[in-house]
Amino acid sequence: MIGKKLLAEQYTTIANATEIMNARAVIDEMSYENGCALDYLNKFSVLTKEEAEELYKELIGLNVEKKDAMKIIDILPVDMEDLKAVFYKKDVPENAEDILDAICKLI
Q1: N vs C: which end of the chain shows fewer Cβ within 10 Å?
Q2: Segment 26-62, tens digit of pLDDT
Q3: Which residue has the higher pLDDT, 5 or 67?
Q4: What CATH number is associated with residue 84?
Q5: Is residue 87 part of a domain?
């Protein structure tokens, strides 16, 4: 990584990252670090990419910020205490119950 510049940055879900890394594993031999990352992603990926995208659209419709929506999708909080952990630096939204209902419908 020495001498390389960061060209872009975007948030993604574990489900999407898993799909990207699995596609790269088929095409090319992976380095040790990428293999460890893929192993981690496969262990902790709960949703499919399609399910994650569906939940993302629903969360954005509930006025959740993009970064927070991605974290909610990765963690999948099932109660208010878990949801508070996602919003630990800011106030929990007023529609927190709607957010939890959207998650519970999916899982």
Answers
A1: N
A2: 888 888 999 999 999 999 999 999 999 999 999 999 9
A3: 67
A4: 1.10.150.80
A5: yes
Q: Is residue 98 part of a domain?
A: yes
Residue with tokens 């209902």: 101
CA distances from residue 104 to 33, 38, 41, 77 in whole angstroms, order as listed: 34, 27, 22, 9
CB 42, CB 34: distance < 8 Å? no
Domain boundaries, position 86: 49-106
Burial of 23 (0-12, 13-18, 19+ CB in 10 A): exposed
For residues 6 and 4, give the distance between their C-alpha atoms in angstroms, rounded to a whole number. 7
Residue 3: what pLDDT? Answer: 65
The pLDDT value recorded for residue 101 is: 94
pLDDT tens digits, 82-104: 999 999 888 999 999 999 999 99
55-72 tens-digit pLDDT: 999 999 999 999 999 999
C-alpha span between 36 and 58 (Å, rounded):
31
Please report whether residue 15 resides in a domain.
Answer: no
